[in-house]
Specification:
alpha/beta, 5 domains, binds adenosine-5'-diphosphate, binds zinc ion
């Protein structure tokens, strides 16, 4: 039975989203004075259990709000902001996200704040300077080393030091505040300028072609209201130019534009295209920023100072007081979906945000997702087509090479080698694509067929030769020595089988000794700035062979590449995941799209053991859009997403039997509760059943009625969490993108 407050101390209360892995917000009391100052959307320091945490105020409660008897009411520790950091629209977006993805609300709210603010540091951290007031205060200090250390450092810098730098040097703000109370040091606020900076055109737009003009006009007609557009434009058809011209109009009205790109899409190349078109405040928000840079960029966005916000997935939760347009480029890209923890899909959240903000949103891609095509069919999205490559460029032709009959050298067919040689002799660039890092995916014994397997996973070890010879499991990260002989039969010939990029690099260098071979993958670009170096080289019209993984497939513009070679995508043709063909088709078209983007025509060679595979033939004889229409029909016939809504339960423990039994029991309960309105698949062992020593099982829930699916899952899921054995890990993935 809820009670109403009885003592005056309970009258002033706020509801707080506290960053803990729980599904509720929690109420705290505060004084009348604090209550007056408290703003919804501001931060507050609270104690929770034994922890001191930074939460966000979501509601100021009135005196008649019942008190939840399950929890003891506590007072807040301190209000941290005198104004809201998160506006009403972002608060609604976060609340909706927590409900839709059924994820703990306090943790979802954390997505909207940069690290420093999450840690409770002051909003004006970057402007706070600390300075010594009393140069002879040694006797005022406590014996604590913290105060003495802080005092010593500050005395070395009589002009003052920013709080940020002091924090980085291990001096805590609490220590500084203690010294401030003793009048030993003082804090001075430097002026920070958050006035909006007008944007000007730095470069004339290109003359749009007919398709581009039509697309631009259609979006501009929808300004100031919600409408979703799918910009379906072939690779190299000038989608970016369309974005830029639409942005120009929106910026003219003094509005902000949010541009989301895939994780890897935020290359210097993309950034410079926006910076060279517009003068003004463009900020970047991505995972590579350090905490101060991130706070600075976030504040520029949140105050309205920045006009263009260019970011990856998580930037969708940035508060923007003046948002006028959202652009999400390469919308098919899987990196928009967070694959752990709070598993949101930035594409879907962006659609909802545009709706809340009442502004248009453009999703762009040369290979739109089947999900987006379905929305077009349902009339929820307007499709805009770009059908010609901009300038003189034409679409490349794809040739298949049958690996079963081809003559090969080190896994590369002779005809492909000849074609590469021809291009290099003509001083053109070649791009070789292989989506597998390392030296070789398998190490096998030539005598007894033993294979090197990870002891913790159902997976082979990958052979790496750099920086030294070792075996590496790409699933759990474990590393082992390369055995000198077979552990099973003691035979001394262990052979690496199959190709990884590191091996292909060696092979290509041997085959084309007079040309540069540049490898672009996570192993070779992990150093800061290395990507910029590679990119500079690519922009010079020198003959080189570029070798890379998925990183090379995305959105890049390589004007001198005239040949693209795809060495092996066969695993994508055989996968059990119903989305695998969609992903493979997108990958082929995107990689192929890197060819012939300049004046010279491009060609694509694809090696395969399955030259008769229908997917390949559809892409070669017809095109991606034809493939998409066909896939859409198949999904509809099979009632697969997006024609039914899905949720995936992942279950992980030390025993597969335990997983199965537990899921089985709850599957039954859900079938009964929903009167079979929810279709339950499984439980089944996950495609990789054992990973890092633990067993994985899956269960998929499907329904044509999204609201009903979410309704039934809600209580059921909470129930499962309460009943699960403590060593079992359960996760819920709403609208899953991968069944692994
Ligand atoms: P997409 O993003 O669709 O792959 P891009 O926007 O990268 O295509 O455009 C490919 C190339 O075509 C770029 O070099 C771009 O400058 C050029 N381009 C785009 N639109 C036009 C146009 N209207 N006239 C001339 N060149 C254009
Ligand atoms: Zn052996
Ligand atoms: Zn492993």
């Amino acid at each position: 039975m809820p009670n109403t407050p009885s003592t005056p101390a309970d009258i002033y209360r706020i509801r707080v989203a506290v960053p803990v892995h729980l599904y509720d917000c929690f109420d705290y009391t505060l004084t009348a004075e604090q209550y007056r100052q408290a703003e919804v959307g501001a931060r507050v320091a609270v104690s929770f259990g034994r922890q001191n945490l930074v939460g966000i105020i979501v509601e100021k409660l009135t005196a008649d709000t019942p008190i939840d008897p399950r929890f003891k009411l506590k007072a807040i520790t301190e209000l941290l902001d005198d104004q809201a950091l998160l506006d009403q629209k972002i608060l609604s977006l976060l609340t909706w996200s927590a409900q839709y993805y059924q994820f703990p609300v306090g943790e979802v709210f954390q997505s909207a704040l940069p690290t420093f603010l999450r840690q409770g540091k002051p909003y004006n951290l970057l402007a706070r300077m600390w300075k010594v007031l009393d140069l002879h205060a040694e006797d005022k200090l406590t014996r604590s080393e913290k105060q003495q250390q802080a005092y010593k450092v500050l005395k070395l810098h009589p002009q003052g030091t920013t709080e940020n730098i002091l924090n980085l040097a291990g001096i805590e703000t609490a220590t500084l505040k203690a010294l401030e109370k003793k009048a030993v040091v003082q804090c001075i606020l430097e002026h920070q300028d958050f006035r909006p900076q007008p944007v000007t055109l730095a470069q004339m737009p290109l003359t749009a072609n007919e398709d581009q003009k039509k697309a631009i006009q259609q979006v501009l007609k929808a300004q100031k209201k919600y409408q979703a557009f799918l910009l379906d434009g072939l690779t190299g058809s000038g989608k970016t130019e369309v974005y830029l011209q639409i942005m120009q109009e929106v910026l003219k009205q003094g509005k902000q534009v949010l541009v989301l790109v895939p994780e890897i899409g935020l290359t210097p190349q993309t950034i410079s295209r926006f910076q060279s078109r517009f003068h003004g405040n463009i900020v970047l928000l991505h995972s590579g920023l350090n905490d101060s840079k991130r706070l600075q960029a976030w504040q520029a966005a949140q105050t309205g100072k920045a006009s263009i916000i260019l970011g990856t997935r998580s930037a969708i939760y940035t508060p923007l007081p003046n948002l006028g347009l959202i652009i999400l480029d390469e919308e098919h890209d899987l990196s928009f979906k967070q694959q752990e923890g709070f598993r949101y899909h930035a594409r879907d959240v962006a659609m909802y945000r545009a709706h809340l903000e009442n502004c248009p949103i453009i999703l762009g891609s040369a290979t739109p997702s089947i999900d987006s095509y379905a929305l077009v069919e349902m009339g929820k999205m307007t499709r805009l087509e770009l059908n010609q490559r901009a300038g003189a460029a034409v679409m490349p032709k794809i040739h298949l090479i049958d690996l079963k009959i081809a003559q090969k050298q080190n896994g590369i067919s002779q005809s492909l080698i000849d074609e590469i040689q021809k291009r290099l002799d003509r001083k053109e660039q070649v791009l070789v694509f292989l989506n597998r890092r390392g030296y070789a995916p398998v190490l096998i014994c030539e005598s007894c067929a033993w294979q090197a397997k990870c002891p913790h996973c159902d997976a082979n070890f990958t052979v790496h030769r750099q920086p030294y010879q070792h075996l590496h499991c790409h699933h759990c990260g474990s590393i082992h020595r390369l055995p000198e002989q077979c552990p099973q039969c003691n035979h001394s010939e262990l052979k690496p089988i199959g190709l990884g990029t590191a091996q292909v690099e060696e092979n290509l260098q041997q085959l084309f000794p007079h040309f540069d071979v540049i490898r672009v993958d996570r192993d070779s670009t992990s150093r800061v700035g290395s990507w910029q170096k590679i990119y500079d080289k690519i922009q010079k019209s020198e003959p080189v062979v570029l070798l890379g993984t998925q990183m090379l497939a995305k959105g890049h513009h390589f004007p001198y590449v005239t040949l693209v070679a795809i060495l092996d995508i066969d695993s994508g043709l055989l996968s059990v995941d119903f989305r695998a063909t969609e992903r493979t088709a997108q990958l082929i078209v995107q990689v192929a799209g890197r060819a012939g983007r300049g004046e010279r025509k491009g060609e694509v060679y694809l090696q395969t053991l399955r030259p008769d595979h229908p997917l390949l033939n559809t892409l070669i004889d017809k095109d991606y859009r034809h493939f998409a229409r066909q896939t859409l029909k198949e999904r509809q016939a099979a009632l697969l997403p997006p024609f039914r809504y899905a949720a995936l339960i992942r279950c992980e423990s030390k025993s597969q039997e335990q997983n199965q039994e537990f899921l089985q029991q709850h599957a039954q309960a859900l079938r009964q509760a929903s009167e079979n309105l929810i279709d339950v698949w499984g439980p089944i062992p996950a495609p990789m059943e054992r990973k890092a020593g633990r067993y994985q099982a899956h269960m998929v829930l499907l329904s044509q009625d999204r609201a009903r699916l979410h309704f039934y899952i809600r209580g059921w899921w909470q129930n499962m969490l309460h009943q699960k054995p403590s060593a079992m890990k359960l996760t819920l993935d709403i609208d899953p993108q991968e069944l692994s």
